[in-house]
Amino acid sequence: MRQMIRARREGRIAGRRDLTALVSRIAALAVSLSVVGCATPPPASDPEALADYKATNDPYEPTNRVFYAFNDGLLTYVLTPVARGYNYVFPAPVRTGIHNVLNNLASPVQFANDVLETKPRRAGDTFVRFIVNSTAGVGGVFDVAKLIGYRDHSAEGATTLALWGIPAGPYLYLPVFGPSGVRDGVGRGVDTLVSPYTWVAFNGINHLNDISTGLAAVDGIAPHIDDLKKLNEQALDPYATQRSLYRQIRQTDIDAVRNDRRATVPDWYPQADNTVAEGPPPDSANMGHGTLPAPTVSPVVGNLRGQDSPAAAPQ
Predict the structure, then answer these.
(1) Secondary structure E strands in the chain
(2) Residues near 172 by Cβ (< 8 Å), separated by ≥ 6?
(3) CB atoms < 10 A from the CB of 11, how many?
(4) Max Cα separation, the chain?
(5) What is the pTM of this model?
(6) Which residue among 23, 158, 175, 209 is the one 20 to 30 A from 195 at the CA level?
(7) Residue 87 to residue 78: CA distance in whole angstroms
(8) Within 10 Å of residue 87's Cβ, how many Cβ atoms?
């Protein structure tokens, strides 16, 4: 997310090449493994098993489990130690400030999705929040807009596509990014392209986006280290548990946006009976900070918290 005209041009080109290369590598790996990693459907003679297979909608489960094991290792040996160090070094107010800055930087993508979802009041909230927090909030460090009645919400490409009627498609577990689906993966890619920070570079290097991506990964995992540990220890099948939780969260988020018919802002203003006075429940299924479309995302395991969650966590 981030002097000469030539440097800017080279930076944009470099950003496009890096993004294209990353997407190409992941896509190629997924395709190559899916060729030999598809789950075999039960025979028609077992209608109960066949119905369960279709309901699960995870035809690439063998490949997905390979990626899950990779991500679990990344979580255990890289992200968790870094997140614990992050919690130890930075006090809770500092972590909250970092979280707020990441949310503020995500506002352009959030605003674009609010508009595409035909939610003008949500778009208005996002616009006001960005202006107020960028100025009175000192670049987004302090969530001043929330104090005056403009609460945060999440808006992402995956939810936008869902509201447009595009089906979710089969379940996917992506390297690094975690739980997803065909529709959600496309939505994440669109968010990445829409984000202005994808194309901002100085001297050919996208410093802002690189730094924000790293911070977002740590910010997403830091509050939930112990929760994730318990999930992996207590669940009979952590992969299946994450798959179920992810889908429930996604549907809850989609329904929250669809039913959000707020007629006025801010939230302290009198609301009509058919509006959502307090706003919808925090949307919580954005699957990747990559280029700042989803400030509450925890890579590897997906998102497990709402937008307003503080960055504090047990140390």
Answers:
(1) 171-174, 178-181
(2) 30, 60, 64, 179, 180, 181, 182, 184, 185
(3) 21
(4) 68
(5) 0.72
(6) 175
(7) 15
(8) 20
